Fold this sequence. Notes:
The protein is an alpha+beta fold. It has 11 helices and 10 strands. It has helices at residues 2-10, 16-28, 33-40, 44-56, 76-100, 115-127, 141-150, 153-165, 181-185, 188-196, 238-254, and strands at 60-65, 68-73, 109-114, 134-139, 169-175, 199-204, 214-218, 221-226, 231-236, 256-257.
Amino acid sequence: MEQEITLILSHFGFSEQEIEIYLSSLALKSPTVTQIARKVQKGRTAVYFHIRNLQEKGLLLESRKANKQIYTALPPTEFANKIDSWVRDFKNLVPRLESLQMVEQESPTVELTESKLGYWKIYDEISLMPIGSDFRVLQGKKSLETELTLLTEEQLGLFFNRIIQNDIGTIGIFTKETFDISKRAMSQKNYELMQKRRWDLKTLPKKVLDMQQLMFLYNNKVAFLFPETAMVMTIRHKGIYNTLVATFDALHKLADKTDPESL
């Protein structure tokens, strides 16, 4: 559970240490610096630095009791209201930010990352897409075998629960050789969750689609997983994205309709 909380709060600019101290302050109920340091197993100086950051963000309140400084964590409900306020403020800025964007003149943004870090970033971004969104995935056998070693069962469960809750659809093209891998490689709980996601799945034989890599198309991004090098590459460019979406959709129409339960 703590890993899930850390993953979510990290999106709002909180460091892992700040999150750990906030959670400890909730559990300890108005502790001193010494008690927090003992709980998180870190030095007082380091803990005090992060406490100051949390105070500036309004998540820890300082007071005195019996000549000691104590810290009270902002209640989770008030924390959620604060996050809602940040989101509303940002949404109000979107029109002004979009006016600064030069889509037609933008250069492709390319990012190359180590597979585990890069792959979870893709999954995380996809799972936070707007309600009712769709993303596209093109995949071969070797990349699926590699993919399922890059995420923990907890990360997979978090991803599946998010996309089910937000009705995020998967438009997929898989080679027929990929089937049966998922059932063997993930827990029964996550396998059952995977079956509940919204799918539009089609397949092609390897002789037609001789591909071992993985390609995602989402949010004006193209992401590739290369199993041989254990690297993930993402390209953000609207023109490249639209071209590959058109190519993908044409291929999808020619592929064979498949029952997702066979995965």
